[in-house]
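Hey, resending since the last one bounced:
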Amino acid sequence: MTAEAPIGSVSPIVDLPVRHRMKASGNRMGYAVGSLVHLGQILRSTQIRGRHVIDLGSQDVTIFDEGDAESLRRFIKELGGDPGALNAKLRGTFPIIIAAAEIFTAAGFVYRCCDVDRRPGTVYVDFNTLAFDQSLYGQFDLVMNAGTTEHLPNPLAAFFFMHYLCRKDGLLYNEVPLSGWFNHGLNNLTPKFWHTLRWMNSYKVISAMIKPVGVTPANDGNFGGKHLDFIENLSDLEQRSASIQIIFQKVEDRGFVPPFDAVLPETGDGKVVADLVWASLLPFVTLGSLSPAAAVASVNSFMSMQRLSYRMLVPMEYLP
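The structure tokens again:
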């Protein structure tokens, strides 16, 4: 099989105001086949029985050669699907691009995706609004973030949405840039972020690995460009680009707690901590993505996890 393509590879778009994730014409977010193979191994080892999956982003899969095609057929077969379902498309000239929806469907999944993309079958979601349809909450066994959150100026909203989309014991799959990628997205989340997200939400780590990425003529636009020369000495910096693939299991059925980086008091009943968590959830309450009661329940669950005695009540202004 060929070396894996960079996640979410797009041609650089320069000096445009960014509201949504920008995509070059004819180019979408996408998976490498190797990532799907690893996902298949995880699904079999964790014995996730549910078959409802949702993608953050309207995704494609790029098949570079016959080795990739065979790996894709095996992925579909090992998950109980029909490995011949895509044979007609796989007879084309490589590289071949197939919608992720077709591949997951062939593998026996009920597939949905959400994006600002108007592609048929896509649930319209703008992560920058922080306003989400609560009817989708708890409907999915597998929630995929394959090269999406790095394109958001505020990725926290997407992690909030992922948490609530996922059923208890479901999987939260992330594969995004960790370092380098200077001209790819808008953020590279640190290992400390992933640790904090994990412990504040009691996620179980199923898999976590670093995937170094080399610069090739096919993807060098993701790593630099003349338009970045206004940053002094940037071109002299040794850029070691890598992605992180990290898969969590949502083992507790409690509300989301946004990760925050603060020095917390070592004494007291926890009111300071509760106020911080409530404030971080308040934008989602204001925009209708979370009820005040659910937000307070999230705060108090976190207090319990931290063995702090303080318990919050729904503020008077939010009572019916």
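The chain has eight helices and ten strands.

Sorry for the duplicate.
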